[in-house]
Each structure stands twice: as C-alpha cells, then as structure tokens.
What we know:
Blueprint: H1 4-12, E1 18-22, E2 25-30, E3 33-40, E4 43-46, H2 50-59, E5 64-69, E6 72-79, H3 85-100
Antiparallel strand pairs: 1-2, 2-3, 3-4, 4-6, 5-6
Helix pairs in contact: 1-3
Amino acid sequence: xxxxxxxxxxALALPGAIEQDHHGxxxxxxxxxxxxxxxxxxxxxxxxxxxxxxxxxxEHPEACTEYYWGKRLACVEIDLAGTxxxxxxxxxxxxxxxxAHR
Length: 102
C-alpha cells in the first residue's frame, strides 16, 4: 500500500514534472501534457498507450484496471491500497516517457 502523498512524490520526482489542478483534482504534467492524475486519494491514473494499459491490467490485476473515457481506453487506474511504490514508480515512468516525447 502506498499513500496519495507517496504517489505525488513519485510523480514529481520525474524530470520536468509539475502538478496542476485538473477539474478539481491533481494532475501531473510534463511539457504541458498530463501523464497522471489523482482523481481520488486512493486512485492514480497513468496515461499509458493502449498496449501498456492492457499489459499493466493483465500482469497486475490486484492493483490495475483498464479505465475508459467513453468508448476510448484512456489510461490504467491504479488502486494505491493494492500496490507498492515499485509498481507505481514503473507505471509513472512509462506514462512520463509516453507524454514527454510527444
């Protein structure tokens, strides 16, 4: 289990990462692009590409689920109570990489 504060620290430890409000909850951005959000204290959403989302959800079903925005697979949602810092750090790094070089 990790806390919202730990998730925030991990996100902000990535190069160039900043925190900004996104419709009333924290978002983490690099080069103006969102790579993760904290919509609830126990949920983190990491903006991966579709294959990475599916891989995370299948390899870590206890912590990760596919999250759809309408009919579009948008991100992986991570249950912070069901995971550890290593997995969150890895998924945040993937999301950061995906957005940093777009």
